[in-house]
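Worked problem 6 (solution included).
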Amino acid sequence: MKKISKLMVNCSLLFLTPFAANAAGTYYNGTYQPTQQRYNTTGYYPSANQQQNSYNNYYSQYQQPQYQQVQQQPSTQQRNFSETQQGFYLDGGISRETAMWQFEMKDAGSILSYNNISWNVFDVNGGYKFDMGNTPTQIDVGIKIGSQAAESTMVDDDITNGGYFITQWVDSGTGDIIGDQIGHALSIGTTSGGSMFGFNIGFGLTDFFKWGNAKITPSIGYRNFGYKLETKQNYGLSVDTSSCFIIPDTGEIQCDSAIVIHYADGTDQVLWRDDMTDPLEIVGTDPESVDIGGTYYYQQPGVSHSYEVTWSGPYAALDIRYDINQYNSVDGRIELGLPSYTATGNQPYRSDWQHPKSIEDSAGIGSAMHFGLAGNWNTALTDTVMLSVGLTYDYYSISGANAKTYLSEDYYMGIYDALLTAWETGGFTEADMLDPTTGDPTALNIKALESSCPGWVCSADGEIESFYKSMGIRVGLSAKF
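Solution. The predicted structure is:
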């Protein structure tokens, strides 16, 4: 029995030996190594230390980048300004704007314009984003303050638009109309020290429309924009014309200044071009004086024109933001408004107008139009602060605003009282002075003016066309809280 058992053990060893060697893979691939080297530190089987080093190298090469990426992810999300976040936001900037303001009087034949106005502007806009129900919503407010940066030019042009009516000359003997006396004037001055102030409040639906990386926020609101401009060192030339004619070959129009000869017997003679080329015919007795009407040159060293203008009313806007990446974006704004218009002017050198309010042009909400554009490139400086560089454009216009001129009662009635005193000294009455045929033309004109302008305020509906346009370069900073 022992012999059989010993034989079976020997057979088992012989049977298992080749399979164990083949499993080691050392017989058929030419890389046979002695058995003692399998446990050597440089042998085919690495030692425990080598296995640990290999594992560490593998972990550092494969696992470490994944760990670093996981650590960076929260910072990237914080600096991604494209994501809509609830809370407060604030944006402020400075800009340099170049602007022009002009208004035109239809019947009065006058155009006044302030050209190349330079503004230094500071603006601050802030708001709060929140969820109203399930809809992201925002409320924003802003202010805009500006000061005139340099002198610009004002042109008061009463020539190119036709001029303004002075009076009508009538032959006292026949009653025939001789002609109209028309005033033409051109003055050029400088403006400086102007100021600007505006504010707005709006309500919008944050990122309400999305188109790829572009997000659109519609909003409605109310905007008030105003500025004050003054003219100093004004130089001008005024010419009252009595007759004009057209040169046939060129179509050129030439006008003569209004020259009136006053005679001792009360006769007035208006000279026309034909009278100046032919021997003058004397129509009265004893010529006393020659009147050239309003033809003169003038200088106004102080403030000759001052205007305060306000455009104020509702608007609708679209804000569009396109995310380039988590650090950079571009945005734009399109705004359409229907504001009111008010321009209050003071011309202190005009003794025939009231002060400080000489004129007032106005139109109600919805009568004017505002078109605004803005575009910015934005880049993140920190997790909460962004730098922006952009352009702005605004265009305001009104057609058919009403005009009021506030006349000085003291000025006109002072002239009237002086004329009445002269007539009464000569033995005449006020009725004689106001006789339509033989009375005093100046007194008659003053009474007609008082009747047509109740309270010494002359009104003209639909008289004014006006526009204001500006373009600027802006640099700003924005932050989220």
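Discussion: The two ends are 94 Å apart (CA to CA).
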